[in-house]
Amino acid sequence: MAVHTTTDTGEILGRLEPVLMADPIRNTVFATVRSYLRNVGSGGWCAHSQVALAARPSPEHPIALTDEWTDVPALADAIGELPGVAGLGGPVPVVEALVDALGRRPGHRIAERLYRLDRLVAPVGVAGRARLADRGDLDLLESWIAPYTIETYGRLPVDFDPKRLASVVIEHSRTWLWLDAEERPVSMAARRPPAAGVSRIGPVYTPPRNRGRGYGSAVTARAALDVIDNAAIPVLYADRANPTSNKIYRAIGFRPVADRLSVSFG
């Protein structure tokens, strides 16, 4: 199976579109790649065969993979020509085979589960209320981005810029904050713009001192309602090793769709 590569933004976007439209839930990560390239316009890379696709929006991002990769050695050769690879994410068998073919040891592995929501079960009895974040919350979100990233990925990436990431969360997502009874922000959940009728929720974060009170459930439910109000299907990823988050998401109506493996290098 021939594997071709390109860094042409127009060609990458053209190849992403049918993949995303064919299965917008399972391929939700490619909506993020598409959005980044549309906004930034350069820096992307993709490899493709007749049936499979691998793509990243920039060298700082992991390469996202579709299910259909069968010629993993050829894909590994294509990836091996890149000057650097931040990580890989996709179907578990494909990622595991590709890691072996690349001969590289990941610095961090996350077994993820993709969930979708069709009927929201809003939690009750949680003190406080939700409101949308705005530019005035930039410092707050900046202070939460680093601990969230470390909890999720085990480390901070090279050239990590929490202020820039906080700006992205506010400007390119609708980010909900949960305020406690004293009107203090205690939890957050962002939802991405809908793509092909699907909107992914994340990041979701509650500082440790605020956990165990239902804030994470409440703010995630509010973000999901926002998605539903925009006639889209809410989806999200959860770390399979975190029983609390998986329990929370199931309790408010999310159901599992597929498992995914994310690995980072360096």
Shape: globular
- The counted number of beta strands is 12
Encode the helix/strand succession as letters: EHHEEEHEHEEHHEEEHEHE
Low-confidence spans: pLDDT under 50, at least 5 residues?
Answer: none
CATH C-level name of the largest domain: Alpha Beta
Strand order of the largest sheet: 1-2-3-4-5-12-6-11-10-9-8-7
Annotated CATH topology of the largest domain: Aminopeptidase
Strand content: 25-35%
Q: Structural class of the helix and strand makeup?
A: alpha+beta
The named CATH superfamily of the largest domain: Gcn5-related N-acetyltransferase (GNAT)
Question: Roughly how many Å apart are the termini?
Answer: 30 Å
Count up the helices. 8
Overall structural domain count:
2
The overall average pLDDT, rounded, is 94
Main pleated-sheet profile: 12 strands, mixed
What would a concise description of this structure say?
With 266 residues, this protein is α+β, with helices and mostly antiparallel strands.
